[in-house]
Amino acid sequence: MGRVIRGQRKGAGSIFRSHVHHRKGAVKLRSLDYAERNGYIRGVVKEIIHDPGRGAPLAKVAFRDPYRYRIRTEIFLAVEGMHTGQFVYCGKKANLTMGNCMPIGEMPEGTVVCGVEEKPGDRGKLARASGDSATIISHNPDTGRTRVRLPSGSKKVLSSSSRAIVGIVAGGGRTEKPLLKAGRAYHKFKVKRNCWPRVRGVAMNPVDHPHGGGNHQHIGTPSTVRRDTPAGRKVGLIAARRTGRLRGGSKSQADKD
Fold this sequence. Notes:
Layout: H1 6-11, H2 34-38, E1 41-49, E2 58-64, E3 71-77, E4 87-90, E5 101-103, E6 112-114, E7 134-140, E8 145-149, E9 155-159, E10 163-166, H3 182-190, E11 224-225, E12 237-238, H4 253-256
C-alpha cells in the first residue's frame, strides 16, 4: 500500500483550491430577455480590464435596465478592436459588427465569432480563451440548427437561436512568446492554482507514485491504464484509444463533412 498520490490529493481541495480571490467575476452574455429575442439593446464599453489568471482581457459593458431605472454592468469577453466608449448592440436585430452579440442563425456563413452559447440562454460557453474564435459553417433553416467549427477544429451543431459575439477574443498570440525562465511560470500559475512545478512520476519513489523507483528512470509497466483503475493506480494515459505521435494527414470522415 503506497502513499496517497498527487491526483488523489487534488480531489480533496485544501491547498489545491483555485485562486479566485482577486478575479473580476463570471464572464457571461446578457441574460436572454424580450429585448434580445425580438429587437436589440444598446450598451457602452466602460472599461477594458485584466482578469488575474486569464489570458484574455475583459470588457465592462453598461446597459440600461429595460424594466427598472438602473444601470446593469455586464462582464463580456473583449474582442479584438474593442475600445472604451464603443457602443455594442445585443439582440436579434443587431448589426453584424465587431463586438455585437446576436443569434448565430442571423449571421452569414463564414462569420468569425466567440463566446458562443452551447444551448440558447446559457450565456456563452464556447471559444472563450485569448485569441480563440469559432466559424459559422452552414445553416439548416428547416431544423433551426447551425453548424459551427470550434477552435479545436471539431464541428458542432448548435441551435440557431444560440447567441455569440462577433469577432475573435483579444489577447491572441499569448502563447507564442516563450516563458524563458522559471520565475515567469511561477507567477503565471500562482494566480491560477497550485499546479506548478510538476514532479514527474518516474522521478519519485515507489511509495509516492506507481511509476516511481527502479534503477534508471523508467515506467516499467504499460503507461496506459483502464478507465476503472483504482484511484491510487490511475496515472499515465487513462483509457487511451491510441498512443504515440499523430502521424499522416489523412482526414477522418467527420472532417470531410
